[in-house]
Amino acid sequence: MFGPELFAFLDQLARNNRREWFQANRSRFEEDVRAPVLRFIEAFAPRLHRISDRFVADSRPSGGSMFRIHRDTRFSRDKSPYKTWVAVQFRHVQGRDVHAPGFYLHIQPRNTFAGAGLWHPDRTVLAQVREAIADTPDRWRHAVGGRTFRARFERTGDALKRVPRGFPADHPAADELRRKDFIALTRFDDDELFATTFLTSLAGRFRLAVPMMQFLTNAMALPW
After folding, report:
1. Residues near 190 by Cβ (< 8 Å), separated by ≥ 6?
2. Would you state the CATH architecture of domain 4-219?
3. Most CB contacts within 10 A, which of 45, 90, 132, 207?
């Protein structure tokens, strides 16, 4: 599905992150990066639906599962116009943006990883998830505590220094209630990305995150 020419383009873009260079090499981007990523999204859709048919694999070139290569530089000191990676999100069918619960794939030379969960949710959603964890801490611990899940995934994201207001400081899930993100990442070597088995490997990793994803969607009153 993916070939070394994808990484060759991204490595060269990292060294030539200018609009003039990108325009001169746009055909390479379309042929070596966008086209194989869109084919991948289309091919992955049946596997995703076997995990849950509530998550969307949209292979449209614009407005679909693949993120734009252009960076939003409005509030950044780094004014480089292009991302030097490729990002794909398979978000919940009722999700409107990147903050929806979803599965994620980040493709970058020497830094390819996949993820699952809920990133930077708004206050309402964050409160829903925290309430669900506070009410059923054992269920949440079970969802993120499986041996194989912990061996493959690293839980990460922003967190508060103290337990948020409204929850006791000595709550048994105090460390979980401090979280502002509920995400987990799993890494792939470059050779794994280029292997013919990558579709199957990625689906297998996502299945390990199903208990966590089910907990989050249930907390948000979304269908699984």
Report:
1. 7, 109, 110, 112
2. 2-Layer Sandwich (3.30)
3. 90
